[in-house]
């Protein structure tokens, strides 16, 4: 899925909001992309943006990875089974395992209104969802014109720029709780249909935003500051990596992504059991399901401090880069100093060794080595035979033993 964010014209206002949608790293990432990526769209690629029936932004096009869909697959299966059974209760003795739920995947219609390159539909097809509505259409125009297609659940990663997130959340929550958002529901009524679940992949900081709290804290369980009973969050075990259709920009955004999900409360109760079982059986590589902001904070899944504005973030980023550079320089200097110190100590040891070898033993200042040289040098052969005047090596005189004669010449082998 893709997200498209409008850029400002020189000396002018920002372009009209784009309708392209969902996959990964925008609003707060576009400046990162422009900073770190040298690749920019060619003139041909820029011209290709005219193929969309809405304004698009290069920096908004990031595709949702397969791993993200796999993390919410248990919830999608619950919705598929619930829709396939007509929302009825499973009868006693009727099988309702994960394997049996898979057979319902081709019986529900999933809707992704934000189009990038069509990859999201292909990925959902690969998971067994054959009815996926994902077309290059102006989503907001369809809402205005009452042309939103009938669907059983909305699964998307909306653009992160401008007010796309807020508009998508309003539409989705309205569809979950029976609001009239335009279009025709499977039941023939207005909107996407009462009780139509949604799955929105957005930055984790959205959970701390006031607009999220205001939109979701209504009618169903949102009274008196309580958490809504029809809202839950799926927290991935690792950061998602997003792909740009043109292979440029950041793969991993500077924030963690979280699935913001809305579905009937009886399905959320089932989901808690499913995800707790996955964690106990699959270890730390399984996604977790939370039902409150407090739970997200306890897990460290959302920011605990207020996010700074773009100017503050740029300043902090430069400061961190400077600290990193200073730390690297300090480490290099330390290594250099340690190397110099080791070199000085080695030179000092060599100097002491030379001084020791140059000591005199006659008080006249003539080194032993010089004395030997003045005497013509040592007679090594004579020393070996024990007859020379040179300094003999200790332990070489074997004369008088049963293996050598008086001159030290070997007369008998030892073995």
From TrEMBL:
Residues 1-48, 301-415 are annotated as: Disordered. Residues 1-12, 308-319 have a biased composition (Basic residues). It comes from the Eukaryota. Residues 28-48, 334-349 have a biased composition (Basic and acidic residues). PANTHER family: SITE-SPECIFIC DNA-METHYLTRANSFERASE (ADENINE-SPECIFIC) (PTHR39444). It comes from Odontella aurita. This is Uncharacterized protein.
